[in-house]
Amino acid sequence: MPSAKLIASKSNGLQGRIRVPGDKSISHRALILGALATGSTRISGLLESEDVLATGRALQALGAGVERDGEQWCVFGRGVGGLTRAPGTLDFGNSGTGARLMMGILAGNDVTAAVTGDESLCRRPMGRVLTPLRKMGLNVDGEGDTLPLTLTGSTDLIPIVYELPVPSAQVKSAVLLAGLHAPGETSVIEDAPTRDHTERMLQFFGADVRSTGDGGRKTITVKGGGVLSGSDVTVPGDPSSAAFLVAAALMTEGSDVTIEGVLINPTRIGFYETLKEMGAALTFENERLEGGEPVADIRVSSSALKGVDVPAARAPTMIDEYPILAVVSAFAEGETRMQGLEELRVKESDRLASTLAGLVACGVEASATDDSLRVVGAPTIAGGAGIETHMDHRIAMAFLVLGLGSEKSVVIDNAPIIATSFPEFAGLMRGLGAKIEETG
Ligand code: S3P
Fold first, then answer.
1. What is the C-alpha radius of gyration for the chain, rounded to an integer number of angstroms?
2. Does ligand 1 come within 6 angstroms of the Cβ of 274?
3. What is the pLDDT of residue 381?
């Protein structure tokens, strides 16, 4: 049995040229669109994390073929509206993305399914997805807003125009996926650009989808009743996973790391823009398009950073990176203030609270309001703390990175949770020279 805890200790000279595993958001979508397509879809670089595998199992339970074939994954689609097998209970583990996107699919198919997840997922709000899906015709047992729930789809969905009340790509995607099953056009209006992988991939699979508007407010419209064609998808490296390695290289002395083939979609790189403003020696090299998404090799070396103000408008483009940005900020000179963080309260944990508690436990001066975080940087950080991860993979990884730069080691209480998004994390970090070990 691998140990449940990991300990990170002061490290320097991280060196190497590596790849991070495939992007989590794109991996979920590749499996899902593959299952809705006719014909087969071959996926290279699929992230084989607990979250993504749970989505694969759910699609199998609904009748799609999902199997590993050598280095690739192959999905044998059932066509839009063709998922008819009674799946019993679908367990999405820790995954909000899997659960919410799949609710959009369940809405448009003639199935009844019990949907559940782990303790963390069963605390998270589902009403944000269920409200528009109910309008379209999804039947939900009871009035509940949290899992477990039993959902019954319909082959008679109603198309809607839905204005997102929260900036959430998961909600946008669930409505668009349900819209594929409705006659006519379904539109989602967003005020701030959230990650656009669903739109991009729908187009790639041949759906009739269009986006109008400027960089800010956008309307995304999908036409139902069309056919998706099985396609070959290459999943680029996950910028949200690369963020931990980049942060570690910045904060440790004598480090120089290149991460190859990382997604640099503009809706995902707010963290990297912020690091550049902080003075990071960080460059995107060899920029190119792979499978319809922009990618680059990210080169980063040890840097003296300065605190900055991170505007609320940037939050959707770096929503998963605040815990690691908070850790980086602890080692910067001066204060970093992050605004617009209300969505952090409903992630795998209350991420604002977990991040603040971890920083304070490690001797960092920090404070929070309902929707903001302030971190005061210092030349040395005490560390020497045991961190409660609250079943949150990103809290686990962020505080292990803090332990690489602090005076005393940092222990996290739940190592297996890291496999939610980045099973290779500890091994890759060790390969670069980081001291991260199992502990009792
Ligand atoms: C995701 C969207 C984000 C993000 C999550 C993945 C997606 O959630 O936090 O890790 O793949 O659509 P919200 O859409 O709820 O902000």
1. 21
2. no
3. 98
